[in-house]
Amino acid sequence: MRITPSILNADFANLGAEIARIPDADAIHVDVMDYRFVPNLTIGLPVVEAIRKSTQQMLDIHLMIADPDRWAPSYAEAGAESVTFHVEAAKAPIRLARELRRLGARASLALNPATSIDSVADALGEVDMVLLMTVEPGFGGQKFLDLVLPKIRRTRELLGERDVWIQVDGGVSVETIERCAEAGADTFVAGSAVYSADNPNAMVNRLRELAVAACAH
Ligand SMILES: O=C(CO)[C@H](O)[C@H](O)COP(=O)(O)O
Ligand SMILES: [Fe+2]
């Protein structure tokens, strides 16, 4: 069970210090948005390169951008351990996943809430993680969409014994993480839940404990 907090709701003027507040995180989830794939703009490659220099923690880059085929490899070259791109945006997802792995990164495929996992079933052997959006991408602090839970179960079923992580992203909190874990998710993005907590690192550990306990049922 991995907790990968999103820095979307952290203080962007103090990113290094904000990341240092969550030493027990399993990775730092960085949301890259481009005003094209989603109606929001965040940060891009230069900031990711600066983050890379400021921390040894695993970087989990979530690209919500148009044309990831063109831009995603640079994030692997910048030293990100995991690069996620959206299937709705990629022109050649298998070629891109292979390129990311060739560059030494984990390759990960993201699906919007309305995108079916069965539509990408044949590509699952090419990736290290599937990110299932549990809100419409673009903003932090949105309400978790329960309608994604059957897709988490279906993804687990399709993956079988394969060692592919299932990450959920959007509205994950102490209220919703157990449902995700019971359905088969093993990697959890939490943005506002972590950074609105008085003690973000304690929240990371609390979320992990809830996920572990839910899975043991
Ligand atoms: O990809 C994202 C939004 O598109 C973010 O990772 C996600 O929304 C995290 O924030 P929160 O936990 O507040 O929902
Ligand atoms: Fe994200």
Automatic annotation (TrEMBL):
The active site is at 31 (proton acceptor), 169 (proton donor). Binds 1 divalent metal cation per subunit. Its cofactor is Fe(2+); a divalent metal cation; Zn(2+); Co(2+). A divalent metal cation binds at residues 29, 31, 62, 169. It comes from the Bacteria. One of its GO terms (cellular component) is cytoplasm. Its EC number is 5.1.3.1. Keywords: Carbohydrate metabolism, Cobalt, Isomerase, Manganese, Metal-binding, Zinc. Substrate binds at residues 6, 62, 138-141, 169-171, 191-192. The keyword Cytoplasm does not apply. GO terms for biological process: pentose catabolic process; pentose-phosphate shunt. Pathway: Carbohydrate degradation. CDD domains: RPE. One of its GO terms (molecular function) is D-ribulose-phosphate 3-epimerase activity. It catalyses: D-ribulose 5-phosphate = D-xylulose 5-phosphate. It holds the Pfam family Ribul_P_3_epim. This is Ribulose-phosphate 3-epimerase. It comes from Tessaracoccus rhinocerotis.
